[in-house]
Write a structure and sequence with these properties.
This protein has 142 residues and is of the alpha+beta class. It has a single domain (8-135), classed as Thiol Ester Dehydrase, Chain A, CATH 3.10.129. 23% of the residues lie in helices and 31% in strands. A hairpin with a 5-residue loop joins strand 3 and strand 4 (92-101). The longest helix is centred in the first third of the chain and has 17 residues, at 30-46.
Length: 142
């Protein structure tokens, strides 16, 4: 039995005053930004960022985002955003997310997202781009 390669990154984010509602609770829309921060951190760590894909001639828009809220974060909390790449055969980039409160390690949010490849004419790419296949080989995903 071979060990499955898991690629993930973690990023700490501090809940800022501008991100909370009148009760001091992190506004639900701010979580989207935290997941974006997680994707950017993953991209930098593994060379799969937006500028990397653009340099290869592709846009990678987000087409689906799911979030399951467990507990709130409040102003002054620090969140740990864990972003994990999910390997798929399709021409898509899949991530799973977990946000934890840094002070007690409790799960705050679980989520996932799907991104697809568009060419520079904004046309959907149905087959997996060669650079993405090479990227997967580099990280021993195929």
């Amino acid at each position: 039995m071979t060990k499955k390669t898991i690629l993930s990154s973690t990023k700490e984010v501090e809940v800022r005053f501008s991100e909370v509602d009148s009760m001091g609770i992190l506004w639900h829309g701010s979580y989207v930004k935290y997941l974006e921060d997680g994707r950017e951190d993953f991209g930098k760590k593994y060379n799969l960022g937006y500028l990397d894909t653009l340099a290869e001639g592709f846009f990678v828009p987000l087409i689906q985002l799911n979030m399951d809220f467990k507990k709130p974060l409040v102003y002054g909390d620090k969140a740990i955003v864990k972003t994990t790449f999910i390997n798929a055969e399709a021409a898509k980039i899949l991530y799973q997310y977990e946000i934890r409160n840094a002070k007690d390690n409790t799960i705050v949010l679980k989520g996932d997202s799907i991104q697809v490849f568009l060419d520079k004419d904004y046309q959907l790419v149905w087959s997996t781009p060669e650079f993405f296949i090479d990227w997967k080989k580099k990280w021993k995903l195929i």
